[in-house]
Specification:
single chain; 12 helices; alpha/beta; 10 strands; binds magnesium ion; six-stranded mixed beta sheet; four-stranded antiparallel beta sheet; globular; binds adenosine-5'-diphosphate
């Protein structure tokens, strides 16, 4: 059997695993800073993991360790069982399976046309012209940019949201098994945000790609992620199913400087005052449903 990425599905279990990982910036300088403290974590294939935490909690440091962009100062990062710090062919291949979309990725666009920019990665993999074109088309389709309309345009003449999408397409074109996105909606307007998250969700549902999404917006994460990791001062403060964490870990969230989604606040308020609503919901639309049903049961609506 082969998966979406044309790879044989073996018996071994696919995951990114961090073992006793710590990261220190500016070691042995006056600015020495311990950004991550003894992180133990496994992200399994098929998960959609949301990472949230206050500014400076270590989110960007953590995700840059996942594809070997940063080396941990202590501990080991394994991708599909391979230690990323090795200088072997396997380690290079493993790193390539982890696609990383940085914060403000549009600053890394540089080719003259949108299509050339997206083709850059696949070309470096030594794929044929036809294969590269196929991947560019697929990636543009994924981010909702029409190949005929936008392929030959300059990326620098697009809107901010469109440039962001070109940058994401460049990573998608490399068909990573793990897709890491660091604040992909930062600086976008609500329409741009909805588009980006809609496409990430669609890609996840269609291909089963593993997603790690860093965001400071709990509402976005709650709607998409099936696992939530809260970082606080370089440590994992909570790790679990988002709706469970919202229900049981309010103090931990508060200490970490993050909040439950607004809809959860509303539902918990109503529940405390005796309305029989389900507080463990993912979206505003689920929230309005449970309120409506509770009101109906009480004879307040028809
Ligand atoms: P987040 O993405 O959650 O805002 P970061 O991982 O970027 O957090 O940063 C974690 C901590 O490490 C912060 O205190 C930050 O100031 C520090 N830091 C990040 N990058 C560097 C760097 N290149 N040199 C020194 N300190 C850094
Ligand atoms: Mg960051």
């Amino acid at each position: 059997a082969a998966n979406h990425y044309g790879e044989r599905i073996g018996r071994c279990f696919m995951s990114i695993r961090l073992e006793n990982v710590s990261h220190v910036y500016g070691r042995k300088t006056p600015n020495e800073h311990l950004a991550l403290k003894n992180i133990n974590l496994e992200i399994k294939e098929g998960e959609f993991v949301g990472i949230i935490g206050h500014t400076g909690s270590g989110k960007s440091t953590l995700v840059q360790l996942l594809n070997g962009l940063l080396q941990p100062t202590e501990g080991t990062v394994y991708v599909d069982g391979t230690d990323l710090s090795c200088k072997s062919k396997e380690a290079v291949a493993a790193r390539r399976r982890v696609g990383m979309v940085f914060q403000y990725p549009e600053y890394q666009l540089f080719e003259e046309t949108v299509a050339d920019d997206i083709a850059f990665g696949p070309k470096n993999y030594g794929l044929s012209e036809a294969e590269v074109t196929e991947r560019v088309k697929e990636a543009m389709d994924f981010v909702g940019l029409d190949y005929e309309t936008y392929g030959k345009r300059s990326p620098f003449r697009l809107s901010g949201g469109q440039m962001r999408r070109v940058a994401i397409a460049g990573i998608i074109a490399m068909r990573p098994r793990y897709l890491i996105l660091d604040e992909p909606s930062a600086g976008l307007d609500p329409v741009g945000r909805r588009e980006i998250f809609g496409q990430i969700e669609r890609r996840y549902k269609e291909t089963g790609i593993t997603v790690v999404l860093v965001s400071h917006n709990m509402e976005d994460i709650a709607a998409l992620a099936n696992r939530l990791i809260i970082l606080n001062r370089g440590e994992i403060a909570a790790d679990g199913v988002p709706t469970e964490i919202f229900a049981t870990e309010r103090d931990v969230l508060q200490a970490a400087g993050v909040d439950v989604p607004p809809v959860t606040h509303v539902l918990q308020y109503l529940k405390e005052r005796g309305l029989d609503v389900e507080t463990r919901v993912k979206t505003v639309s689920d929230g309005t449903d449970t309120i409506y049903r509770a009101l109906r049961r009480n004879g307040h609506a028809d």
